[in-house]
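cache lookup: miss for this entity combination. No prior model stored, computing from scratch. Input as submitted by user K.M.:
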Amino acid sequence: MKKSVVLAFSGGLDTSYCAKYLSETLGYEVHAVTVNTGGFNEADEVELKSRAEKLGVATYTFINAEKEYYNDCVKYLIFGNVLKNNTYPLSVSAERTVQAQNIAKYAKEIGASAIAHGSTGAGNDQVRFDLIFQVMCPEMEIITPIRDMSLSREEEIQFLKNHGFDIDFEKAQYSINKGLWGTSVGGKETLKSRHSLPEDAFPSQVEKQKPTELEIEFKNGEVVAVNGETFAHSVFAIQKIESLASPYGIGRDIHVGDTIVGIKGRVGFEAAAALLTIKAHHLLEKHTLSKYQQTIKSQLSDWYGNWLHEALFLDPVMRNIEAFLNDSQKTVNGKVFITLYPYRFVLNGIESDNDLMSDKFGSYGEANRAWTGDDVKGFTKVLSNALTIYHQINS
Amino acid sequence: MKKSVVLAFSGGLDTSYCAKYLSETLGYEVHAVTVNTGGFNEADEVELKSRAEKLGVATYTFINAEKEYYNDCVKYLIFGNVLKNNTYPLSVSAERTVQAQNIAKYAKEIGASAIAHGSTGAGNDQVRFDLIFQVMCPEMEIITPIRDMSLSREEEIQFLKNHGFDIDFEKAQYSINKGLWGTSVGGKETLKSRHSLPEDAFPSQVEKQKPTELEIEFKNGEVVAVNGETFAHSVFAIQKIESLASPYGIGRDIHVGDTIVGIKGRVGFEAAAALLTIKAHHLLEKHTLSKYQQTIKSQLSDWYGNWLHEALFLDPVMRNIEAFLNDSQKTVNGKVFITLYPYRFVLNGIESDNDLMSDKFGSYGEANRAWTGDDVKGFTKVLSNALTIYHQINS
Amino acid sequence: MKKSVVLAFSGGLDTSYCAKYLSETLGYEVHAVTVNTGGFNEADEVELKSRAEKLGVATYTFINAEKEYYNDCVKYLIFGNVLKNNTYPLSVSAERTVQAQNIAKYAKEIGASAIAHGSTGAGNDQVRFDLIFQVMCPEMEIITPIRDMSLSREEEIQFLKNHGFDIDFEKAQYSINKGLWGTSVGGKETLKSRHSLPEDAFPSQVEKQKPTELEIEFKNGEVVAVNGETFAHSVFAIQKIESLASPYGIGRDIHVGDTIVGIKGRVGFEAAAALLTIKAHHLLEKHTLSKYQQTIKSQLSDWYGNWLHEALFLDPVMRNIEAFLNDSQKTVNGKVFITLYPYRFVLNGIESDNDLMSDKFGSYGEANRAWTGDDVKGFTKVLSNALTIYHQINS
Amino acid sequence: MKKSVVLAFSGGLDTSYCAKYLSETLGYEVHAVTVNTGGFNEADEVELKSRAEKLGVATYTFINAEKEYYNDCVKYLIFGNVLKNNTYPLSVSAERTVQAQNIAKYAKEIGASAIAHGSTGAGNDQVRFDLIFQVMCPEMEIITPIRDMSLSREEEIQFLKNHGFDIDFEKAQYSINKGLWGTSVGGKETLKSRHSLPEDAFPSQVEKQKPTELEIEFKNGEVVAVNGETFAHSVFAIQKIESLASPYGIGRDIHVGDTIVGIKGRVGFEAAAALLTIKAHHLLEKHTLSKYQQTIKSQLSDWYGNWLHEALFLDPVMRNIEAFLNDSQKTVNGKVFITLYPYRFVLNGIESDNDLMSDKFGSYGEANRAWTGDDVKGFTKVLSNALTIYHQINS
């Protein structure tokens, strides 16, 4: 019996090469799998299937994992207002994590003897795939032809041609990765520190100039409605926000960060829905959470984002943090009002039954209804005790 | 001998009332003191002195504390990239802290028997003044007529008129506080949760439309040059940045946060120099600090900002955090390149001899020069061990 | 109709005084309530009831809250291995929190117009009672005769005598507070920094010399069996541990800490069951939790303990942390083996199906079965990258 | 010219094998170096030199690094009260870190072409040596014969015999590592989870039964005197404490923790001086530091210990934390009074000019001199505001 391999297949040059190489050179029965985390539509699915078949794979499977992606990961990035280094919504990190888990699950189901991915040796993805495969399928071999052989584009294309697969792989100027939670844009300027990306490097172009109002409604921290329209699943709500805000060029930036392999990396991105959702959610939390909820949640979420980024999603501490995050969202209900402008947006305000800002108790700087001036005198007296003692003893 | 009081004097209605009330009603010899943290120019100084004298104070003193303000406080807000609730540069919190310390020092120098401030009972400032006065001058009485008597504007004006001080205190629609690190704008919309401030509520209006390039140079985390121009003190560099960016309406936002007295408060602000400096500094740090330096510094800085806000600047832990921050800035050197647009700015990139992003070692996603694919295989193998064991034991 | 007050009643001199003072001097209908958090047995209950009745209260209620105390609070102190300042099991802090909540609930149920406690102005308890009463019954007046009047013991006794209540309140040398989670011992030596408590200050004396074996079994982090004996509720298991370990004088120490009112305080305690349970639980966690679970849980638990101590139990962040803690205990199952000696104990080891220390994968310092030497070379190569780059760039 | 290698030489079987193997089999000129971090005395030095010479090394160097060890590392473990997993003073982690740095420095000085250590593939030391060598000498090859060849004891002995080196390497039942900051004891029981070490596994035996008084004096957090005797360097003070406490069997325990390679490891230790110094220092800090200094320092120190353990000592964040720690020790001055008993000790109390516990201001639970009952009422009123609002809004 032929040994079988499951290949994480994106349809690009590298994974096309892998498909051929695994079957022709290594003699595997190749089961190609694409896990959709929001980057592919139905036309893409047809095209991917066709390409895989032309490459002669034994089977091709397209797994639609958008809801799982949201439920298992994106949801917590919203709850935690997670922006890596205060900038990047971690879209690629999160996608790879969910893709790798789906690939591994599939490989176990069909009893594959090996599992393959097309990552190079220079990025984070290799670690995410390797690590999740090792944890979930420790008995399977992991095969990474691109990393192992360090082939040039031309060599890959020639190999494919030699094996009867002759497609025009156009060399894009930028490497693009699209998903529910954002689109990354790497290459050229991002390889150095000095310059930002030019306007046309971004897949979405600015097409609207006139400001629009946007209203996002949250229930227990999740988006349930956009401009009054409700959705069967938050995935659709996020897609709606993206469709409204993307024509404004909102949510573009460049992330500079520490890769898992130790070098600094830089990558551009556009992520209108992610930025709007997180910033709106964060504003609503400022009105509905206690001071310490915000402080502790923020610090936990930093770690959550870092470890997600560093391929440690399967560490049980991530589940524990998710339990904290879930519990913290009970009062995060209400509407956030936003105005969209080209390249930017303004958070106007919120309405919420859980809003802790209520002039029933007092009005900042204006009126104290729930306490007296004498109460504050006592408060500051007692609050100062420790410091007064410290400075008297140590003066 | 008459007992003497030092009054924190801003020249507004409340502190004018205090000046008269302290002398006329309470029989004190009043020493009015204004501490300038960047909100007053020379004309203001003359006007303040004149007003104080008309109010019949025994002495009037104008303390120029801008450099001290920067050295003792603003510097660390830059080092820590401190934006309260990820938004607000803490300008008022920082100013009051430095003002209160200067007032207290002055009161001790002249041997005053009391110390007075004009805060109401509804805000944060009362706590900052009370607390720092109690810690630094525990033997002095603290007098707070406005908080104690809850007078209306009209009553205050009438009292002043009755005592021969008849000036037109125009009632501004918004309460404005200006300083080196930003200008706060409170009132009307900020008293409720729903709406943002209208364009004309902001003291600075957008006057420039054409993008400009801005270059900020840092040495050990401090701004030393702006567009190539060097400065005798970072205070002047910050003022330069403000003058360049303020005509773009940059750095406006609304802060929603937890007051020290327990209610939620909302306040608008414009702080072009603060936002630009912090974001430029933060970008430079992403290139020059290690991963863990950034993570730990960020968490410490959150606490630093919170405690500064909550009047705990004199806690020795603040000095300990400053020691950490100082030490962390050794490699934060280089230039940051920015483009200014109306209402926003883009961080283009950096140049630094301490830039850890160097293609000598590898290029993210493109090339691994300092390690091999096999090294990464070993890395992910060992890194996965703990999780593999966890999931096998617990499956 | 007479206005009614609910009095937190412990049966001591202070609350006896309050009972009389509230009815005789202030004219209240007094409803005395004792909340038992493990310090009282059935004989105590009879005695308390009798004393309250002699004091002429309108009603007396004894609320048995041991299980609630465990379920709402002690359980999380175990999950978090909480020892304030690495020493003190927070017994009194936890008891007051649960007592105050029960008193407040009772006061609301009977529609009382006021609520009273007998705390002095010098400790933490006043803040815990005040704060929880204000949060839960903001409409009720809080009456604190002892704090307000600063009476001497003699004055209180005389007042009671004058009102026909003449009992011999012996002046104990130490002030003792007993509960499920430990007994505190304050007075004399603990009022200064220099000396520890003498042997006979501790209520339990060392009566056993011969070592005994103790086996504690945990399920999801909770004690379910002691020496093989199972219990209907963890409260009984804890009492069993206490009965076995207390005759060894285990769990004695002096806590030095920051009171809520700003001074440093010092208090002795004996808490055999608390110390044994926490240390055994912690050891089991070292074997069954991941590295990052332990680190994050430890830091969260520090805050949990601090805020419990500081009367902030009702902050919603506490519920969020409890959600984290609950989730973290899924794998904390197994037996811990201990030997008890006079004044100390030794944790011998554990047995657990969730033990992550398994020689199937490798044996520390002896054998690597799940990885090769080459894997580690790759691991250290990649792990060193960031530091190597840092030191080369900055040398 | 012969290529040269610097070998980290401990004189045991593994590094003896390496010495021969590197010269005879690999043809290196071997420069053996021992770095003393407190485990070797002068007789040991003579013996090590003689053994190295018998093994035919080109040069042998004994580096006395005790003071450097203390200054660069142990000092901060004291400042941070660092006990890994609340138990282990990190003696081995700290020693390897300082040893590796000294070896690397030496290798650079003599311009060696390679650097070798004798670690196996199953422990933490290999990572510490590899990583520090790679960071400090990235151009040198790292040779690890023991890890690479997985030889048995017998094979190593036979190889040495074949090359004329025939010494009786007795197989100890436990593997012992001695240093200034403690002695680790591994083997047999520690390889499994269930049992503790027997009495005679510990190198020091309990020889004293009668309690003794011990007085440790600190200045800026460092030990300056023991029982009134002052020392030229803290290293000697620590050795004095060890000599006094070791005969009581104090400071024994078993550490269970996460190795860098992912498995759980268990190791026994005796570390009388480390435990006494840390616990005494910690007590003094409870009296002399502010609440927040203690909380933040504790959390930072946890990370410091973890990263030291995980070979990340050269990360610049460690220097930043050290700056925090240094600054925090300004007020940590005074004497700590301890009684030593067999297997345990009691911290009696402290004397310090910086003691913040002073009845000038108040006495916990007894007297409030610096504030009134009304002050506390105001304090609790204002402190409760946020929670009262939260619970009213969300009820």
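stored under new cache key. Chain C has twelve helices and 16 strands.
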